[in-house]
Amino acid sequence: MKNRRFFTTLHGRLLKWLVIPLLGLSLAHMYSIKNNTRITSTELFDRVLINLALSISQYSISSEGDLFTVDLLDLIRKTTKDKLYYKVLGPNGSFLVGYHNLPEPPEGIKKIDNHIEIYNATYLGQPVRIVAISTLSKHSRYSGWSKTFVGQTIKDREQFINSVIWDNLTRIALLIIIISCLLYTSPSPRD
Fold it and tell me: 62 or 38: whose pLDDT is higher?
């Protein structure tokens, strides 16, 4: 009975007038955070993939497709916890190293700086983000344009987005709880 009476008092009405719009604004804010975080994480993770593709390309061409060095493997392990897939094609499309059947870019994809393609695909039943980068090599055996593909599963990206969302959601929930408690426990003015 006391709770029912509370929402008819000035405190109760203030609580409804503040908390309900605050909930609506919080939902809009969370939607904005999710979209902005997705855009930011895509840019950051794509840049990491581009740098990995350049490193793998440079090493693969200079070593003529040999196994990766411990340093390069260590760099790859430190870069992500996700599974990485790669494929390096030498001039004339000759296969050098990696996974033969890593998906090629779809037709009509826009190139960045005329030599980088970034696209989504499915590989081994998992969604992956792939960077395909063309580089000019002047190696004695592999001289010409080579193409390197590096794909990454999207678990790290999704975990990053979810952690940002949960962090912000926790802060907003705490703010709403604090405001509600302050309004509920403050001295009642005379109606």
Answer: 38
